[in-house]
Write a structure and sequence with these properties.
The chain has 401 residues and is α+β, with helices and mostly antiparallel strands. 37% of the residues lie in helices and 21% in strands.
Length: 401
């Protein structure tokens, strides 16, 4: 067991088969802990610590196995825009970009606002950010060309029904339309490079810029999509008004309470997870998934059903998610850990529930002066987001009511 714990904790490039093996070790240790509790009302400290060590190591192993790999550079001749942009990034020469701007005003924006990156670079940046932002993989993502995206919705439901071929058509109820508005906010990153790196022709500019922007932008997006205020950042999932599911109305997010302040019930704690799943309508449960922090997931990993089977199961491959009661689990470190009054678990169909809008175009402004001898690149993009169907996602509240 100790050898396995060392292997799990030290592996930097884990094969996913090792994750499955580690989970079997976790189950064995946790079953021993539960047996000790049942026999003498408490578990040995050594056994408890062993379970916690394997649990923590398993989290780290899963995290390492999900680190995105950079794609190979696309084959073929680079576009004229890409060549001009690379010259600007490497040498600061914007002559070719300015010449293109003179012919087509949609290409650049001049020295003050920076220049639009070519489609190849934007695609690589977007690809890697989607790997770093869990929301982009599970939510509805839409590209727009305006600053604001407006989406109408019917507050009294869609009007539809069956009718016979020769039957008189009934008069339909007038639709009551309202509008959801998604304002795009400016998100920036400022990677730095040495001139020596930029002069190195072997360095792929697309890969370098995407990799430098990936982590910081992915983290900022995840934070905003979870807790954003809707003023300087997109409106976050947890920042909408919340009401108990029994009193749910459109415009609010419904929740189920655990019945215990800052924790789970002493007996059958997983029953509230089941209540959360079934608080979502059947049509939304198709494609449903859980979202929670790593620490919350570590606690739930110990839960069993009435047949003594673990409710949490590891992914069967590195590109898949673990499951809880058969539903995928998305790990989000910006979801709060368990505490009194905290909404720490979300469940539902995120693709139908949350919308992300991207304004087309990523801009880069080269700055060789501010941090000599380094060259700074001020990279900006506009992103918005918010709920689009308040009935699709529900929350679990760690409180009495």
């Amino acid at each position: 067991m100790d050898t396995l714990e060392t292997k799990v904790a030290a592996s930097a490039a884990a094969d996913y088969g090792d994750v499955l093996t580690a989970f079997e070790a976790f189950k064995e240790a946790n079953d021993e802990r539960l047996a000790q509790i049942e026999k003498r009302q408490s578990a040995d400290t050594v056994t408890t610590e062993k379970v916690d060590r394997i649990n923590k190591a398993l989290d780290e192993m899963i995290l390492k196995s999900r680190r995105p790999q950079l794609a190979a550079s696309p084959a073929g001749e680079p576009s004229e825009h890409k060549k001009a942009f690379e010259t600007y990034v490497r040498k600061g020469d914007a002559f070719a970009l300015n010449a293109m701007e003179a012919k087509a005003m949609s290409v650049g924006s001049g020295q003050d606002g920076g220049y639009l990156v070519p489609p190849e670079t934007e695609a690589e940046i977007g690809r890697l950010i989607s790997k770093a932002s869990p929301f982009r993989d599970i939510c509805d993502v839409r590209q727009i060309s305006a600053m604001v995206h407006n989406k109408p919705f019917n507050t009294n439901g869609h009007q539809a029904g069956w009718i016979g071929e020769a039957t008189a058509r009934p008069q339909t109820t007038s639709a009551t339309l309202a509008q959801l508005s998604y304002q795009t906010m400016e998100l920036y990153a400022m990677p730095a490079a040495t001139q020596a790196l930029l002069d190195d022709s072997v360095v792929n500019i697309d890969d370098w810029m995407a990799r430098e922007v990936q982590t910081v932008v992915g983290e900022q997006e995840t934070s905003a999509f979870t807790n954003g205020d809707g003023i300087t950042a997109p409106k976050g999932l947890l920042t909408y008004p919340k009401v108990a599911q029994g009193s749910w109305t459109w415009g609010n997010t419904g929740y189920i309470a655990t019945g215990v302040a800052g924790g789970w019930a002493a007996t059958a704690p997983s029953d509230k997870l089941l209540d959360l799943v079934y608080s979502v309508k059947a049509g939304y449960r198709t494609g449903g998934r859980f979202m929670m922090s790593r620490n919350t997931q570590s606690q739930i990993r110990k839960f069993k059903d009435n047949q003594n089977q673990y409710l949490w199961q590891p992914a069967q491959a590195a590109d898949q998610a673990p499951t809880l009661m058969g539903f995928p689990v998305t790990e989000n470190e910006y979801m709060p850990d368990i505490a009194t009054g905290i909404f720490g678990v979300a469940f539902g169909n995120f693709h139908r529930g949350y919308l992300i809008v991207d304004r087309i175009g990523v801009r880069v402004l080269r700055d060789p002066y501010t941090a000599k001898p380094y060259v700074l690149f001020y990279v900006t993009k506009r992103v918005g987001g918010g709920m689009q169907d308040f009935d699709a996602i529900k929350l679990l509240k760690f409180d009495v009511s």
